[in-house]
TrEMBL record:
Subcellular location, principal: nucleus
UniProt keyword Nucleus present: yes
Pfam families: Myb_DNA-binding (PF00249)
UniProt lineage: Eukaryota, Viridiplantae, Streptophyta, Embryophyta, Tracheophyta
Localization annotation: Nucleus
Gene Ontology cellular component terms for the protein in this record: nucleus
Domain Myb-like: 10-62, 63-113
Name of the protein this chain belongs to: Uncharacterized protein
Keyword hit for Mitochondrion: no
One GO-annotated biological process of the protein: positive regulation of DNA-templated transcription
Originating organism: Gossypium mustelinum (Cotton)
Record keywords: Activator, DNA-binding, Nucleus, Repeat, Transcription, Transcription regulation
Residue stretches making up the HTH myb-type domain: 10-62, 63-117
GO molecular function, one term: DNA binding
DNA sequence: AACGCCTTCAACCGCATCACC
DNA sequence: GGGTGATGCGGTTGAAGGCGT
C-alpha cells in the first residue's frame, strides 16, 4: 500500500533467527530511511530477507519504545480484561499496552495466562461440584447466553488473593473514568510504582498517546467500537454482580 | 554426563484486506 | 470490476534452554 510493486528479483531469502549483523543493518536502514515500502527495505539495506520478515523483525524486536521483560500484574489484568472483551484480537489488545506487541502478548497468553485461568476454573469447578446440591447460581448464568462468559475463559475470580477480581473492576472504572475524565481509580492506589508507571499508567489515565499508540488511544478506540460496546454492555448485564464500577449505562 | 520432556518465544505461514493499475 | 502486490493479523511451528530423572 502506498508502495509501487517492485519488479521482483525473486532472490533466495534467508530464514530463521536474525543475526546481530542483520539486526544492525535493518535498524540502521529504517532509522535513516524509514519503511515506506517493506519490500524494498531488504534490497536497499543489503539483507537477504524478504520484506515481510524485515517488517516483523522491526515491529517485534527492533522498533524503538518496545518494553521488554516481565509483564506487570497490571498488564496481566489489562490483557485478561481485553481478551475477555475482544477474544484473540492481539493487535487490538496490544494497542492498549504501550511498548508491548501483539506477538508478545499472544505468546504470553498461551504460555502463562491461559494456564492460570484454566487452573482457576478447575478450582472453581471443584468447588462448585462439591457444593452443587446447594448451587446458588442465578438463573441467567445457567442459560445459554451465560456460557458466553465462561466459555471465553473469563477469570471470574482470580487465584491471587491479593488481587481480587481486578480486571472487571478495572475495566468498569476505566470506562467511567474515561467518560468523566475522573481521578485515579482505587485499584491503582495500592502503590503501582514500577518503573513502567510513567509509560503505562499515566498515558492511559490521561488519555494521551505514548509512542505509537498509547494506552488511552487504544481504549478510546475500544469505546468507539460499537461491537465492543454491545459486548461489554451484554457482559455487564449478565455478570453485573461482579462489577463494582457503576454508571456505565 | 546424558537423555528426554516441557516451556518459552522468535519467526514463519496462510489468509484477509486494502490500494493501485 | 478484476488482477496483482503490499501489508496486517492470527495461528502455528520449531529452535533453544530449563529441568527432572
Amino acid at each position: 500500500m502506498g508502495c509501487k510493486p517492485s519488479d521482483k528479483p525473486k532472490a533466495k531469502h534467508r530464514k530463521g533467527l536474525w543475526s546481530p549483523e542483520e539486526d544492525l543493518k535493518l535498524k540502521n536502514y529504517v532509522l535513516k530511511h524509514g519503511h515506506l515500502c517493506w519490500s524494498s527495505v531488504p534490497i536497499n539495506a543489503g539483507l537477504q530477507r524478504n520484506g515481510k520478515s524485515c517488517r516483523l523483525r522491526w515491529i517485534n524486536y527492533l522498533r524503538p519504545g518496545l518494553k521488554r521483560g516481565m509483564f506487570t500484574p497490571q498488564e496481566d489484568d489489562v490483557i485478561l480484561s481485553l481478551h475477555h472483551l475482544l477474544g484473540n484480537k492481539w493487535s487490538r489488545i496490544a494497542q492498549s499496552l504501550p511498548g508491548r506487541i501483539d506477538n508478545e502478548i499472544k505468546n504470553y497468553w498461551h504460555s502463562y495466562l491461559k494456564k492460570r485461568i484454566a487452573k482457576v476454573e478447575n478450582l472453581e469447578a471443584q468447588h462448585t461440584s462439591s457444593t452443587s446440591e446447594s448451587s446458588e447460581l442465578p438463573q441467567n448464568l445457567t442459560d445459554q447466553s451465560a456460557s458466553f462468559v465462561t466459555d471465553q475463559a473469563v477469570p471470574m475470580h482470580f487465584d491471587l488473593p491479593q488481587r481480587s477480581p481486578l480486571p472487571k473492576l478495572l475495566f468498569a472504572e476505566w470506562l467511567s473514568l474515561d467518560k468523566e475524565g475522573g481521578s485515579k481509580p482505587a485499584a491503582y492506589s495500592d502503590g503501582y510504582n514500577q518503573a513502567s508507571a510513567s509509560s503505562f499508567e499515566d498515558p492511559f489515565m490521561n488519555g494521551f498517546v505514548f509512542n505509537e499508540g498509547g494506552f488511552g488511544t487504544g481504549l478510546q478506540d475500544l469505546l468507539n467500537d460499537a461491537a465492543v460496546n454491545q459486548l461489554f454492555k451484554f457482559e455487564f448485564q449478565i455478570s453485573g454482580n461482579d462489577f463494582i464500577g457503576s454508571g456505565w449505562e
